[in-house]
# Entry
Amino acid sequence: MNGPYLELAGASKSYDGGATQAMDIPSLTIAKGEFVSLLGPSGSGKTTTLMAIAGFLKIDKGKILLNGRSLETVPPHKRNIGVVFQNYALFPHLTVEENVFYPLRMRGETRSAAQSKIDRALDMVGLSGAAGRHPRQLSGGQQQRVALARTLVFNPDLILLDEPLGALDKNLREHMQVELRKIHRDLGVTMIYVTHDQTEAMTMSDRIAVFTNGRIDQIGTPDQIYHRPATRFVASFVGDSNILSGTAIGEDRLEVDGLGQMPLTNPSLTGGQTFDVLIRPEIIKLRPAGQGTTGHDAVIEDSINYGESHLVLLRVGDRSLRARMLSTDMKHLRPGDKCRAEWDPAYVHLIG
Ligand SMILES: Nc1ncnc2c1ncn2[C@@H]1O[C@H](COP(=O)(O)OP(=O)(O)OP(=O)(O)O)[C@@H](O)[C@H]1O
Ligand SMILES: [Mg+2]
# Structure
């Protein structure tokens, strides 16, 4: 990673006389050219953080620096930051190219001088052919792309996107995800992308910051967030999970609530330490009862068919566990069957 490009230090914002902590970020640094997603449930502070960076909202405390320079006294239109809002209000009475021209007009450019920039921005979002249309003559996805072109046209240093694909159907959304990634790569521009869709965050981001209650619980690569979540909240918010309580009973063994003893492969525990134990559903392997003695006795309570895979609801001891099985591995297993459930301890993650 390069040095920090955008930096938030002790930045916070509260409402209702301090009763609602909308944002509280001791430290967040983003490198030039990174694609970082802000992921979190509704009300967790994602938009507040974007608006603070864009300058539409004044923080109570702390600093925001862009390229080493404090933004405190820099008004929004002087920050050279592009923002694509969730409700991408295009001007209905202006054509597509007039909409895209708008930010340049605000910066004092003449239409004739700006034309090549407008053409280039529309070309990047694949809308060259729609330059003369009005927003009402466009689909939702096309309007979304005009909003993006309107941001790209002034060549911002940083682009902030607040759930820009929220209103689109699944296919268009996936198409736009690919387009956005391509624009990010081609321009090398730094992007901060707000979403509450974890799949979107996983597939698009260099790093993901997981928000809850105005705070960032963890920031890391998609792999780190998925495989080594720092908190119970991150583990449960990102991906499907089984989270159990465990207590170390030696260097490399845990007593897990309701499951019994479990060996581990990272033997540096101290007896009595307690953990949240994360077992992702896809690490669980099932085989018919009577085959071998390793693993845990289990009963299949239900199985939900997703086509290529099944979500299997298991009873193990007095615990319910979720397992994810390839359909091809489910051939001999039915609800009601007894089986053995086993997993590689190397894939079990402890949250301390
Ligand atoms: N102007 C305001 N006055 C009072 N409280 C506010 C204001 N704006 C935001 N909040 C509160 O701040 C918190 C964070 O809001 P924010 O809009 O940042 O959430 P979000 O993560 O963007 O959520 P969503 O996914 O629903 O868009 C919420 O509890 C919200 O109710
Ligand atoms: Mg929001």
